[in-house]
UniProtKB/TrEMBL annotation:
The keyword Endoplasmic reticulum does not apply. Residues 160-277 form the 3-hydroxyisobutyrate dehydrogenase-like NAD-binding domain. This is 3-hydroxyisobutyrate dehydrogenase family beta-hydroxyacid dehydrogenase. Residues 2-153 form the 6-phosphogluconate dehydrogenase NADP-binding domain. Keywords: NAD, Oxidoreductase. InterPro entries: 6-PGluconate_DH-like_C_sf, 6PGD_dom2, 6PGDH_NADP-bd, HIBADH-like_NADP-bd, HIBADH-related, HIBADH-related_NP60_sf, NAD(P)-bd_dom_sf.
Amino acid sequence: MSIGFIGLGNLGQAICKRLSDIGENLLVYNRNKEKIKNLPYEKVETPNELFKKCDVVFICLFDSNGVSEILNKFTSDDLKGKTIIDLTTNHYEDVLKFHEDVNSKGGNYLENPVFGSVAPALKGELTVVSSGKKETFEAVKPILEKIAKEIFYLPIPSSATKMKLINNLCLGSFMATIAECTAMAESCEIPKEKALEILGVGGGQSLVLKAKTQKIIDEDFSAHFSNNAINKDLHLLQNLAYELKKPLYSAAIPKELFSKMKMLGKGEEDFSSIYQLFKN
């Protein structure tokens, strides 16, 4: 039986290509049908049609609003016995509603945010963190192993989403620091290629630097993970800290820097384009 997939943005397309490359049959739905018209997958006109034909469905959307819009289309008759693997980085409160809604209709909801972007997705080397019923996680783990190198399970609903937001504090902070270091080196007449090479064996060693070095060198800011996405995630993390009555010192500046990129009309660019703020 085909695997269903809803949401073919940059990450969704990369995951679909990975699944297709290893022999999985896909049935896909995207709200913007023009965007996927040339992709080599069987397409459906509505999410309902997809759920009728697939027992396991991935959802990979920008935010909770998109997921809610999809899930609100379904009744118990539609979801009974179906498993939803939600790769979206949701709001940590909204995701609790998704667990309740799907499970109460006889379906199985697995909260499964993705760590990593296009390049590791194409290689099946993502990291995923899952929350939900243990039996649901165990049942779909063989599918997750097709797209992810590292898989973690946190049983309490919303834990995976909160962990994703925490991880993205590291991601956003590293990216902003690497960008500023690169621009500072250039101001000292050190070529950015050499500066990034040195940072890569010095204090800048990180997955972020490895993933974004060439993008900064080439100033190719086509999106793998957008400024809009990191800005949204850091905003949600600040909401979480407020709810927990905890200060969140190191998130404030990166969040505002990515807000500045969004304000400048660069929200759809890759988040490595923050380099432009410091360069200019």
